[in-house]
Design a protein that fits this description.
Length: about 675
């Protein structure tokens, strides 16, 4: 039997437990966006099927004001009503259609069109491939007339809510809450001219975002995650995924759609007439499908709770430091090990996922070695156990920087020739000649000079590399291929540090005296000159994609640590300190110097933020590690209760990094046969 909902993954409901998922959202452990995405998955909807694309709600209804106050309930749409019943007059018109319907073969319905269909998805995504080509194909080889294209957010909302338009009840797609690029006509498509002589180009945005697509997405997402929406969202879930989706409750809620949009409404195999069968399939595929019903009772409420703060929230000038440890070597990296905080030399990197071993490059003989440190309760910590030696990973060059992916699969190394080598080190077994050599997956070519900085972001499957030639390159981690180059025109200063926002994808690049923030697609968000003190390290601090609390921490040659705030449009109107923002900014965002802390007496080399974001660690070239915190810290999350935490004992630590070797020992095997 051919079913409409065959797209649901096998055992999906076992993989995602609905009750646990709902409890996590109620407790604030996952965001509203993530919760809705998982509900869509459970209901058989995914990005892989335009006819069953994830559906999201309109949450705002004010798209015309100069400014918007997300604490004002009047700017939010009533989520307890479907789009067709937003106003009493519109609800009355659809109810009259329902009551007057008289066809023995077709059950009564309020709406002949749907809130989600392939045509609606293509309508929203017309400016992006492959949806551009699919739009053209849908319209017989050309774009639809300009007046029917996605032109304005305000016009689209008005069309879906106005009293006399009974053909439009569309909701939104997830991209409205995380992906600004679909609103820009980057490919300069000729979308035509409307009847009012206005050319269709970029989507017209509400005035409250000042034509800034990133600000529009951020505010829209912030509204979605607000306490007001959290309070109303269960009512919308009842309409789309819950007990008001069908039956008598759907009738009462003015929420009944054409019968073919519901799961199990027709058995395709029993339709003998091939013409009727094709017509039925076309109707189901092209005119919308209602998600699978997930709830048969009212969706539980989420308690509206106090916003939770992170280490730099409220007043970043009030953080204080204390000396955490001193080690007899320069601090290259600080990382959380299996049980302890690991303080590593500059040429060391911890090996995930177990984090019980670490890798050392640039040994005296040019080899790469894997060590296991003694446990923290050992009598002596002055020695480490050598597990294996890898030779000839770099020929006619030396390694300059290395990172390992969080799953422990790839070792990514940059060298003095500008090459980036990707090695597979996962699950290497012991052989008769010792541990097998890592397998070279690919050498990535793009830089003209030495690679100076690397950052791996697995949530976006990218590697970001900086070089002495002044370029920053984004590489595709899945395909191990080039994606794009980030470089300011007429700027060729060496890149000294890079970092990536694992939540929203922004990239920060630093030269000795400048700092720039970029989108994942290489558009500049903001730029600032950092002053005379040479910049040596950088770290992005953020709570989530929509928060106003977005900071950049920089370390400097003098040992100072500076705290910069990323100020989105409309948040503050004063001129940022520390230098004028670039005229080439892609958005109206600026970077402002908030405060400067002096705790180190030598060049600051690295930062590490604890998993709960309560503590920040910084290390310098003289082996001093400082711990930064604020009084009465609280754990950041997605709007859960402000849980207070008492002070905990100091984190155990291990200082790792073997003494330089004068000669190369023979390759040695691992006791457990694994690296």
């Amino acid at each position: 039997m051919l079913k409409v909902y065959d797209a649901v993954p096998v055992n999906c409901k076992r993989i995602i437990n609905r009750k646990i998922l709902t409890s996590q959202w109620q407790r604030g452990e996952i965001s509203t966006f993530d919760y809705l995405m998982k509900l869509n998955t459970l209901a058989g909807r995914s990005y892989n099927d335009l006819t069953q694309y994830p559906v999201f709600p309109w949450v705002l209804c004010d798209f015309n004001s100069e400014e918007i106050d997300l604490n004002d309930r009047s700017v939010y749409r009533d989520l307890s009503k479907p789009m067709g019943a937003i106003s009493d007059a519109r609800a009355k018109a659809f109810q009259e259609r329902y009551e007057l319907w008289d066809d023995s073969n077709i059950p009564k319905f309020h709406y002949g069109s749907h809130y989600s269909s392939a045509a609606i998805v293509l309508y929203y995504l017309i400016r992006l491939e492959p949806f551009t080509s699919q739009n053209i194909q849908l319209q017989g080889g050309k774009f639809d007339i300009a007046d029917r294209l996605f032109f304005s957010v305000e016009d689209t909302f008005n069309s879906a809510t106005e009293e006399h338009n009974m053909a439009d009840v569309k909701e939104l797609i997830p991209e409205f809450y995380y992906f600004p690029d679909f609103l820009k006509n980057r490919d300069a498509l000729n979308l035509g001219v409307r009847s009012n002589q206005r050319r269709v180009d970029d989507v017209e945005l509400p005035r409250w975002c000042n034509d800034d697509v990133y600000e529009f997405i951020r505010i829209n997402r912030k509204a979605l995650e607000s306490d007001i929406v959290s309070e109303m969202l269960p009512a919308w879930i009842d309409l789309i995924f819950g007990y008001k989706q069908r039956g008598s409750e759907a009738q009462k809620a003015v929420n009944v759609f054409y019968y073919l949009t519901y799961e199990g409404a027709v058995d395709i195999d029993k339709i003998e007439d091939p013409v009727e069968r094709r017509a039925t399939i076309a109707q189901i595929s092209n005119f919308g499908q209602t998600p699978q019903q997930l709830f048969t009772k009212p969706h539980p409420k989420k308690a509206v709770r106090k916003n939770v703060l992170s280490i730099l929230t409220d007043d970043p000038t009030k953080i204080s430091h204390s000396e955490y440890r001193r080690v007899p070597h320069s601090v290259g990296h600080i990382a959380q090990g299996y049980r302890e905080l690991m303080i590593l030399k500059p040429n060391c990197v911890l090996i995930p996922p177990k984090k019980t071993k670490y890798l050392v490059w640039n040994e005296a003989d040019g080899s790469v070695r894997v060590y296991r440190p003694y446990p923290s309760n050992a009598i002596s910590k002055s020695h480490e156990i050598l597990k294996c030696v890898w030779e000839n990973l770099h020929i006619n060059s030396r390694a300059t920087v290395a990172r390992i992916t969080e799953d422990g699969e790839y070792l990514i190394m940059g060298d003095s020739n500008g090459l980036i080598s990707v090695w597979n080190i996962h699950g290497l077994r012991k052989t008769s000649k010792g541990i097998a050599q890592p397998q070279l997956k690919k050498r990535l070519c793009g830089h003209d000079k030495a690679v100076t900085a690397l950052s791996v972001c697995e949530s976006f499957s990218i590697v970001v590399s900086g070089s002495d030639d002044g370029t920053t390159i984004v590489w595709d981690l899945n395909r191990l291929s080039y994606s794009l180059t980030i470089q300011e025109p007429d700027v060729s200063a060496p890149i000294v540090a890079v970092d990536v926002n694992h939540s929203s994808g922004e990239i920060v690049t630093c030269t000795e005296n400048t700092m720039s923030l970029w989108t994942l697609n290489g558009d500049m968000i903001a730029r600032v000159e950092t002053g005379r003190s040479t910049l040596t390290a950088v770290k992005l601090l953020y709570e989530n994609e929509w928060s106003d609390n977005y900071y950049i921490i920089t370390g400097h040659q003098s040992g100072s640590m500076r705290v910069w705030r990323v100020i989105f449009h409309g948040r503050e109107k004063d001129k940022p300190l520390g230098g004028s923002p670039s005229k080439r900014r892609f958005t109206s965002t600026v970077i402002r110097l908030i405060t400067e802390h002096r705790g180190h007496s030598s060049r600051l080399t690295c930062f590490f933020l604890s998993k709960d974001k309560r503590k920040l660690y910084s290390g310098d070239e003289r082996g001093c590690v400082l711990q930064w915190s604020k009084a009465n810290p609280v754990l950041p999350s997605f709007g859960g209760s402000a849980l207070q935490y008492s002070e905990v004992p100091p984190t155990p630590y291990v200082s790792i990094g073997p003494k330089p070797l004068t000669e190369s020992p023979q390759s040695q095997g691992s006791e457990d046969g694994n690296t």
